[in-house]
Specification:
Elements: H1 5-13, E1 19-22, H2 29-36, E2 44-51, E3 54-61, H3 68-75, E4 81-82, E5 110-114, E6 122-126, E7 132-137, H4 141-145, E8 149-151
Parallel strand pairs: 3-5, 5-8
Antiparallel strand pairs: 1-7, 2-3, 2-4, 6-7
Length: 160
C-alpha cells in the first residue's frame, strides 16, 4: 500500500499536487521523520480525539505535543480525549492501524490544524501506511486542509 484510496481520491478531486516519499517502516512521527530524512516539524501528524458528540482530529507538526485544553477551547468541546489506537481501524478502514492521514476531512471528520504548518516550504503526512509519506508544497496546504479550521495549537517551547 502507498496512498490510501480515500486520500488519493481527496487529493485528486481537490487538485492538490503531491509526491510520495518512501521510507523504512516507522512507528511514530519522530521515527518517520528520521526514516524519511524529513525534519519532524514538517511532518503533519493527525491526533484523533472524541467525546460524547463524536470525533475531532487535530493536525500538528510531528515535533510537538498537543495542548488538549487549547483544542477543547478552540472547538468548544470540554470533554475531548484521545482515541486509543485500537479504535482507529474502523475509522480509517483503508489505512494501516495508526497511520492516520492528516487529511481527515476526506473521511468526514471535523479537523483543526496548526497554522504553523504554513511556515514550512512543504509538509509531509502519512498516506495510509507506515512506509510512505505524502508531500504537499506550502502553496497547496490551504487547499489540502479544505474546510478544516486553522488555529494555534502548539507551544513552541514544548517539543517532545
Amino acid at each position: 500500500m502507498t496512498v490510501a484510496p480515500t486520500v488519493l481520491g481527496y487529493l485528486t478531486n481537490n487538485a492538490v499536487p503531491f509526491t510520495v516519499v518512501n521510507h523504512r517502516h516507522s512507528t511514530d512521527s519522530l521515527d518517520t521523520a528520521v526514516a524519511a530524512a524529513v525534519p519532524s516539524r514538517k511532518i503533519a501528524k493527525a491526533i484523533v480525539l472524541k467525546d460524547e458528540e463524536g470525533f475531532v482530529v487535530a493536525v500538528v507538526p510531528g515535533l510537538y505535543r498537543i495542548r488538549l485544553g487549547d483544542i477543547r477551547d478552540a472547538v468548544g468541546r470540554p470533554h475531548l480525549h484521545m482515541v486509543a489506537e485500537h479504535e482507529l481501524a474502523p475509522l480509517f478502514a483503508d489505512c494501516e492501524t495508526g497511520a492516520v492521514p492528516a487529511v481527515t476531512t476526506a473521511y468526514g471528520f471535523h479537523t483543526i490544524w496548526d497554522e504553523s504548518l504554513l511556515h514550512e516550504d512543504a509538509i509531509y503526512f502519512e498516506g495510509g501506511d507506515h512506509v510512505s509519506l505524502v508531500r504537499v508544497g506550502k502553496a497547496d496546504v490551504p487547499k489540502l486542509m479544505g474546510s478544516a479550521t486553522a488555529a494555534d495549537l502548539i507551544r513552541w517551547d514544548l517539543p517532545y
